[in-house]
Amino acid sequence: MSGTLRLILGDQLSRSLASLTDINKAVDTVLMVEVMEEVTYVRHHKRKIAFLFSAMRHFAEELRAEGITVDYVHLDDADNRGSFAGEVVRAVARHGSQRLVLTEPGEHRVLQAMRDWQDELGIDVEIRTDTRFMCPPEMFADWADGRKQLRMDFFYREMRRKYNILMEGKEPVGGKWNYDAENRESPDLSLQVPAPTSFAPDTITTEVLTLVEDRCANHFGDLADFGFAVTRDQALAVLDHFIAERLPLFGTYQDAMIADEPWMYHSHIGFYLNCGLLLPAEAVQAAEAAWVTGHAPLNAVEGFIRQILGWREFVRGIYWLKMPSYADRNFLGAERGLPEFYWTGETAMNCMKQSIDQTRRYAYAHHIQRLMVLGNFALLAGIDPRYVNEWYLVVYADAYEWVELPNVSGMVLFADGGYLASKPYAAGGAYINRMSNYCSNCRYKVAKKAGDEACPFNYLYWDFLIRNRDKLGNNARLGMIYRSLDKMSDDRVAEIQADSSRFLATLG
Ligand SMILES: Cc1cc2nc3c(=O)[nH]c(=O)nc-3n(C[C@H](O)[C@H](O)[C@H](O)COP(=O)(O)OP(=O)(O)OC[C@H]3O[C@@H](n4cnc5c(N)ncnc54)[C@H](O)[C@@H]3O)c2cc1C
Ligand code: SF4
Questions:
Q1: Tens of pLDDT, residues 448-500
Q2: Which atom of ligand 1 is nearest to the CA of 280?
Q3: Does the C-beta of 257 come closer than 6 Å to ligand 2?
Q4: How far is the CA of 434 from the centre of ligand 2 (A)?
Q5: pTM of the model
Q6: Ligand 1 centroid – CA 370 distance (Å)
Q7: What does the DSSP assignment read for 321-345?
Q8: What domains appear along the chain, each with residue ranges and CATH number?
């Protein structure tokens, strides 16, 4: 009798995965495949591909060590058909399988294709809910039902109550749901930021690095000094080090940026949460425990937990609720192409150069670099959401469409018209100057508002508001800003528009 075939995808590397819970080691086979279609449908950062292939190969070894049969198809296997569908067809024939079990993928495109497999393959195909998330799509849909706008803060409170996290009975500990008033300090340049936790490549990782260098030579990004965790034990060590060394200052410096200091006090666990080496619930519990024992203050712990229990689950809920139409939203009608410097880093804007250079080196930038530097520029310059989404999906090692798309189209570009965020996160150079030391080493002058030397963010900010007045003028949260705009002289408005046209023309 042939057993069940269990397909495990590259972002499903969790032993507790729904499709592994009832595995019969005597007869079942786990199928894992490296396919070129997934590597190139957008040409992912080299480091991201190497990380996922190495983590997949290590996970396969761990399953084998447990006595599970794993059929693993390598990218360079001669008969590899290069797609999930092609490899599943081959594996079904190889094993004579009558039943395929899988856990729902993190991308709408892939789920749609898998739903057709039962008919295409002529075998029983069971797609299970991904139980690793803390808010199933149906629960989110119930919560969202009847709400015109969705606000993360209210969703987050529900999640705190449901999981009894940082609660005293029915009330939040300390009396407040959110401690951001104590967070988000400007950077202190004397800080000795702890080094990130990193691991020397072993034999498996070294093989994968060679493979990726060979097969993906023309992809964006560097592979040098690869140090990602590629096993669950290593990922747990990253989480432990974060809790021990960084969490106490996480909130205080959450928004701070220092030149040549990419990692700051962030956790760097997004890579591992999103591919399954870590589970969100265990990260939340570890942070809560650090507050209970007095190791970390409430402002840091609450701020960190909100990112995972709040934002992460919230954006996923929006993704599954609103796809596939969400991917086509372009409320502001932005049409500009993506400037070449997003790939090369060759720009005189130091904040952009710093953020792009580290993205190329590490496949990582922290939230404020993604939101208030790289994203803010794309918003102000009016870059088409399709190009911006593709860039973010390519360049970050934690990027999967379910989390990247709502962050880019909803949070950064306001392309959904305010469904996810109540107003665009637009800002001039003063914000970047307050939260970083980038401006002190920039060709542009952040204090200048007009002319060739002025910081482009300054005039682009006002130009953005002028250009989009018909769409944003009635937004209550922008009322004060539009009133300031109305007080500007015609000459000043003309100057803003001339500076912006001159600068935008240089983007190509
Ligand atoms: C334009 C843009 C694109 C983004 N693209 C991605 C992406 O592709 N993948 C991704 O995981 N995150 C994305 N984020 C969210 C966030 O920037 C990253 O999760 C974070 O920078 C990862 O680094 P970290 O693990 O050090 O996070 P920390 O700052 O230490 O935060 C802890 C964890 O909270 C979660 N988190 C925090 N903010 C968010 C958020 N807005 N949405 C979802 N989860 C969040 C992540 O799991 C993260 O690992 C994006 C944000 C923006 C503004
Ligand atoms: S001056 Fe403007 S462009 Fe230069 S680093 Fe500061 S914010 Fe960026």
A1: 999 999 999 999 999 999 999 999 999 999 999 999 999 999 999 999 999 99
A2: 47
A3: no
A4: 11
A5: 0.97
A6: 9
A7: HHTTGGGG--TT---BPPPTHHHH-
A8: 5-128 (3.40.50.620), 137-198+230-322 (1.25.40.80), 341-505 (1.10.579.10)
